[in-house]
Design goal:
Layout (H helix, E strand, L loop, with lengths): L8 E5 L3 E6 L3 E7 L2 E4 L5 E4 L1 H4 L9 E4 L2 E2 L2 E2 L2 H16 L6 E6 L5 H13 L4 E6 H8 L10 E6 L4 E7 L2 E8 L3 H16 L1 E2 L2 H11 L13 E7 L5 E6 L1 H25 L2 H10 L1 E4 L8 H9 L3 E3 L6 H8 L4 H6 L1
Helix pairs in contact: 2-3, 4-10, 5-6, 5-7, 7-9
Protein name: Cell shape-determining protein MreB
Family: Belongs to the FtsA/MreB family.
Subcellular location: Cytoplasm
C-alpha cells in the first residue's frame, strides 16, 4: 500500500522542539525548532541544535528565529523549510512518506490547514493532523479507546493542552498559551524588575531547569544559583545570586493559569468521566511536567491524584507515531 522503503513519519512540531518518529524505528530526531537565516540573501544557514546555539549570539546579517509561536505556525516558509530539513535528515532520499503532525487542541481550521500545507511542501505525500493531548495520551499509554475517562495535561513550550479523553475522542479540552516559554519570560521579567539585570532566553531556560519550582513554600529547600547578564544601570556585565523562592514567585501566574485550565476542563466533564479521573489520576506530559513540585501543587488544587508520564518529553511524538498505524482511519476523517 505504501511505497517500498518509504516509512511513514510522525512529527511533534513543537514551539520549542521538534521530534520525528519513524514507523518501526521510534523517535529518530529531537532538535530545537529554530532556524538561522541570512537576512540579506534569505538563505538558511543552520537548523535545529546548531541554530539554537546561535540565539542571541549572531552577527547583524544572521537571525536565529523560532518559526512556531504558541504552538502554531508564525512563519510559514521557514516552518516548511525546517520540516523539509528534518524529514530529509531522517528519511534520506527515500520516497514521499505519509506524515502525521501534531497540533494544539485549540487551533483553528486555518491553522490546521497551514500545518498540512507546510508538511506537503516539505515533501510529504500527504499529511494528517492529530490533536496534541490525544497524541500525548496515546504516548503515555492511557487507555484512549476504552469507555473509561482519562485526563492528560501536556505542558509544552508554547501551549498547555488539557483534555479528558474517552472512547477514542476528546470529551472536553482547553488549550492555553501559557507554558514553558511564558515561564522563561516570567523569569526574565522578574530578574529585570527586581535586580535591574537583563538576561537572555537561554539563561532564563537554564534557571527554569535548575531551580524553578511550582511551589513558593517548597522552593525554600532548593539552593540558589548565580546568574549572569547585563546590568541595566551601568550597561556592564554582572553576576547575581538568584534564589529558588524568587523564581517560584516569578512563575506563580503561569502555574495558576495552568491549574485554572485543568479546573475548567474538569468542570465541563460528565460525572462518570470525573469519577474515572479521580480513580486514575491526571497524567502530566511535555517538558513542563518536569517543573519541580508541579504534581503536588496541581493535586492540592484539584484534590485529584497527579502523575508524571514515563517519558514526558516523548509522549506526544510517540503518540503521533503510534497513530500512524491507524492512518487508514485518519484518511477517512
Amino acid at each position: 500500500m505504501f511505497g517500498l522503503g518509504t516509512k511513514n513519519i510522525g512529527i511533534d512540531l513543537g514551539t520549542a522542539n521538534t521530534l520525528v518518529y519513524i514507523d518501526g524505528k521510534g523517535i529518530v530526531l529531537r532538535e530545537p525548532s529554530v532556524v538561522a537565516k541570512n537576512t540579506k540573501s534569505g538563505e538558511i544557514v543552520a537548523v535545529g541544535t546548531e541554530a539554537r546555539d546561535m540565539i542571541g549570539r549572531t552577527p547583524g546579517s544572521i537571525v536565529a528565529i523560532r518559526p512556531m509561536k504558541d504552538g502554531v505556525i508564525a512563519d510559514y516558509d521557514t516552518t516548511a523549510a525546517m520540516m523539509k530539513y528534518f524529514m530529509e535528515k531522517t528519511q534520506g532520499a527515500a520516497g514521499k512518506p505519509y506524515v502525521m503532525v501534531c497540533v494544539p487542541s485549540g487551533v483553528t481550521e486555518v491553522e490546521k490547514r497551514a500545518v498540512i500545507d507546510a508538511t506537503r511542501v516539505a515533501g510529504a505525500r500527504d499529511a494528517y493532523v492529530i490533536e496534541e493531548p490525544f497524541a500525548a495520551a496515546i504516548g503515555a499509554g492511557l487507555p484512549v479507546m476504552d469507555p473509561t475517562g482519562s485526563m492528560v495535561v501536556d505542558i509544552g513550550g508554547g501551549t498547555t493542552d488539557v483534555a479528558t479523553i474517552s472512547l477514542g475522542g476528546i470529551v472536553s479540552s482547553r488549550s492555553i498559551r501559557m507554558a514553558g516559554d511564558k515561564i522563561d519570560e516570567a523569569v526574565i521579567f522578574y530578574i529585570r524588575q527586581h535586580f535591574n539585570l537583563l538576561i537572555g532566553e537561554r539563561t532564563a531556560e537554564d534557571v527554569k531547569i535548575q531551580i524553578a519550582s511550582a511551589s513558593v513554600e517548597k522552593a525554600k529547600e532548593i539552593e540558589s544559583i548565580t546568574v549572569r547578564g547585563r546590568d541595566l544601570i551601568s550597561g556592564l556585565p554582572k553576576t547575581i545570586e538568584v534564589t529558588a523562592v524568587d523564581v517560584a514567585k516569578a512563575i506563580q501566574e503561569v502555574v495558576q493559569e495552568v491549574i485554572g485550565a485543568i479546573k475548567e476542563t474538569l468542570e465541563e466533564t460528565s460525572p462518570e468521566i470525573a469519577a474515572d479521573v479521580i480513580d486514575h489520576g491526571i497524567v502530566l506530559t511535555g517538558g513542563g511536567a518536569l517543573l519541580k513540585h508541579l504534581p503536588e501543587v496541581i493535586a492540592d488544587a484539584t484534590k485529584v491524584p497527579v502523575f508524571i508520564a514515563q517519558n514526558p518529553l516523548d509522549c506526544v511524538a510517540i503518540g503521533t507515531g503510534e497513530s500512524l498505524k491507524n492512518i487508514d482511519v485518519m484518511k477517512k476523517r
